[in-house]
Amino acid sequence: MKIKQAEFIISAVKPDQFPEDALPEIALAGRSNVGKSSLINRMIERKNLARTSSQPGKTQQLNYYRINDMLYFVDFPGYGYAKVSKAQRAKWGQIIESYIRGREPLKLLIQIVDIRFPPTEDDCLMYDWLKHYEIPVCVVVTKCDKIPKGKWDKHIRIAKETLQADPSDQFVLFSSEKGIGREELWEVIQRAIAG
After folding, report:
1. What is the pTM of this model?
2. Which of 4, 78, 139, 154 sits at a 20 to 30 Å CA gap from 85?
């Protein structure tokens, strides 16, 4: 995928702030510090359009990025970060749930997990939730450059088993550092948009 244009549009905290131009939306969800911003930046070949933070739990809205005037990436707040108050987490949960349940342009949710660790309870809850609401999901197993190539298959198997993944759901191995998986993920996204 050749990126001609990518821009940050809005940090939305309530549904009436979501864009209304009906472009397809690809949402990204994952634990705090799992590398969502780095993945977005690698996908659009920009250094820092999506702001990465050394402080987990920083993203507190739905951040919209418009790509090539043909789709949006919608970056969710990272989940499962302990230092965020229960009330704040509940608020995020509400906005994310209302988005997932009622957002017409949503074509795919990319759930990001870190290859170095088995998916957490929060990862499993998110995955179950997506399956319950019949949201198309692609699991991206990121940071694969951090472990030897010979261990990739084993770690992907652990992720699939822990999530109790549907065999029809795609898993993409990814490295924001090295660009591994970028083209494959764009193909998944383009198929999802084509319907």
Report:
1. 0.91
2. 139
